[in-house]
Structure formats: structure tokens, C-alpha cells
Amino acid sequence: MRTVVICGSKKFRHELRAFAAELEKQGVVVFEPNFKEPLPEYFKADSENITQIIFKGLTLEHFDWIRKADVCFVYNQDDYVGTSVTMEMAYASALSKPIYALNSKTGDPCRDTLIDKVASTHQELLKLL
Question: How far apart, in whole angstroms, are the C-alpha atoms of residue 38 and residue 89?
Fold first, then answer.
């Protein structure tokens, strides 16, 4: 079974979902960020504790998917990678997971060095799996 975890910004959630759907059509198990009801970074629940629990839960959920997946794919449209994806790339690297990306650039040369291969389309990614 081929498994991929996709890491990317919620501002590209529609494009990321379409990319994942194409992989799923080919039998790939895809773990995606939980963008069902995306929370803005400035979101605050009635309690600071509840806010922290929500964001920690989302972060740890994605870390668990990274651990379970064969490959980490960074959906860095427009060469954009934010704070969460940076943490996810570091976690995948620490677990010795291959890191593939949509583009070779992330906006930071340190992150760029973590990318093992570039796959600009779902077809290119399928060939790497």
C-alpha cells in the first residue's frame, strides 16, 4: 500500500484537496491536513485552554499521519511554506521519511535542503511512489 501525507497551507486547501483526490483515484492512501472547517491563526475560543487544546490536537494529528505515511509531500504552491509545514517537514526529516514537494523552493534555503525530490503533478508523484 502506498501512503502519502500532504503538508500545506490552508490558503491552498482547494488545490491541495484536488491534488489528493487524483492520488486517491490511483489507489494511494492520502492523509491531508484537517481543513474541514479551517481555523484562522487568530482564532480564540472562550477559553485560552480550549484554544491551545484545539491547535495542539490538530498539530499532533498531522504528526501522527506523518509517522504513518511512507512519504511526506509538501504542497508548496507559489513556493509558500508556513510555520506548521516547517514543523511538519522537520518531523518527517527526523523520522527519515522521504520529503517530496510541488516545487523546489519554500521561501527558505534551510527548508529547501530537506526536499528530496520535486513532483509538480500528481502523475509525477505517482512515479516516485
Answer: 21
